[in-house]
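ugh ok fine here u go
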Amino acid sequence: MKTLFASTSRGLEELLKKELENIGAINCKVSQGGVYFDADQSTMYQSLLWSRLASRILLPIAEFDIYSDLDLYSCVMNIKWCDIFAVDNSFIINFVGVNDFIRNSQYGALKIKDAIVDHFMRQTNQRPNVAKQNPDIRLHAYLNKNRVSLSLDLSGESLHQRGYRQQTGQAPLKENLAAAIILRSGWQTDEPLIDPMCGSGTLLIEAAMMASNIPPGLLRKQWGFFAWQGFNPTLWNDLLFKAKHNVQKTKTTFIGYDNNPMVLERAKQNAIYAGVGDLITFTLQDVTQLTNPLDRNLHGMIISNPPYGERLESEPALVALHSALGRQIKQQFGGWRLSLFSGTPQLLDCLQMRADKQFKAKNGPLDCVQKNYSIADRQSDQPLIKQNLPAADFANRLRKNCQRFEKWASQEQLECYRLYDADLPEYNVAIDRYKDKIVVQEYAAPKNIDPQKTRQRLFDIINATMSVLELTADQLVLKTREKQKGKQQYQKLGQKQDYFLVHEYPINNKQTQFWVNVVDYLDTGLFLDHRLARKMIGQMSAGKDFLNLFAYTGSATVYAGLGKAKSTTTVDMSRTYLEWADRNLKQNGLTGKNHRLIQADCLLYLSQADEQFDLIFIDPPTFSNSKRMNDTFDVQRDHLKLMNDLKRLLRPNGIIVFSNNKRGFKIDADGMQKLGLTFQDITDKTLSLDFKRNKQIHCCFIVKHQ
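structure:
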């Protein structure tokens, strides 16, 4: 009888304990990350061959206390290594742990290696080889404070590597975790099993092997105990023969769907290698088209590991996918049971189903959850009762806003407008329409708010928005908006180059056209809250020399040009935005030497320019510390200096339209008077219907000479 340790993923220890007891192990004791158990030689081999949950099975060799690196060397040196493996076998050491004198794992492994090599040299006058790849013997050393545990790895390669999975898709489940998911789902081996997003087929293959009584280790060609001096090949071969003889033919139905033909082909090959290729039907199909392929009187199990992600741009698609999955399952699989494994539990809420049970587990470093559901039975001709959306109050507000603003935008001939702007404080997002694209900008939550709660609310917002506006996943773009400084204002988010044309107010019977990009940049190329100020510029610009400072993509210049300005000058520091502005001008037929584009620091341009203009539009950043600017700029602190420089460029009867987005901005009336300038606050006149609720979205002034 030997004491062994079976390691497994965190959270699966109790499940592994039950499995080992069923195999025949005794005195099983759960420990963190595994189970200690006692087994005779036959049960030891059976545990290696039959455990679907263990990662490795270790045979403890020695345990001792050390108080120096010399102690480690001496204790290892005194072990009878010739009784464990032969000198012509290669070996490797996996060392975990540090203390005051073993300060890194490589050093600990080196001391053990030296001790083993020196032991063999004394006993046989030969040196065993250390092999990093495919060693005959694997040794594990664990250092906890001053206590060292040394074990022989009987498994060799990790036990999750069954040998059937030649190719995988993205982020595949380990086979032992897949087996745990199957066991926790409550699936019975005679029940039909469907995986609607099967990927490389691991869940279905593991289940089919269980139903067929195929040992998970049957295909393995190499084991860690083959080079162990205690190996009993006769007993092992007898157990292997019995296992092969006891494989059963099952009539259970297994069906896998996926929308990727390449991944599906890999799944078919994996199933063939596992010996269950004739048991599983793999079909190319998107989850949104999921239907029940079996007789409606038959009930079974759906198990899947749907995709989940951390990247913002993937979340709308993931919400849409889970919403579609929940809808199809409730519609098509009444009376069935469902079990889903996810690294993003919030996504499972998009199913709009109540879980009967849930389990926690680790998938590598990720904290994951598995939820089991019972699907209500109903007749196929009964309509599906629409459940209340999460964030119902948000959904109702968005629906009302949509009805109000869509009618107004149609009358105004606008394709871009704001639908929602943190109307309800707990749903702190802005939602803008750009033609058929919807941009959801999440305002960054305070640091004292639980991130999980914030993400759950965001998923609810996405889900409700897609439902209310009847969007597909590729129509919704998600961004997070934080307070921006310096070059962050020009942050590039992607490389998709997804530009499309939108229209705004007509000027002189010609519709304004602008290129926008809702994916690649934090801002889209068109500031929606400034559209009335732009329209005003178009109405004021006839016959005038127009200057646009901090011009961004030149939308104000387009209005001035179509308003028959005598000339336009567009200044911005960013080459990207100037090229964008040039594209906008050309799109509206504004070309030639009368439409200049200047790449420059606008503050430096103001201090050095020696020409004058009749109409100037300036919309500076609230704050900037760009490396290409000589100094920091704060619009509240520096606006008088800005006005003084502008005054020099303004003709006697000229007009400055001065706008900025600083909340609580106050113009210095006394300072303006000393500069010989008058001003008029026209903010209310520049707030269109979709921005009326947010009085602090921007402020706007008309400035003239006294």
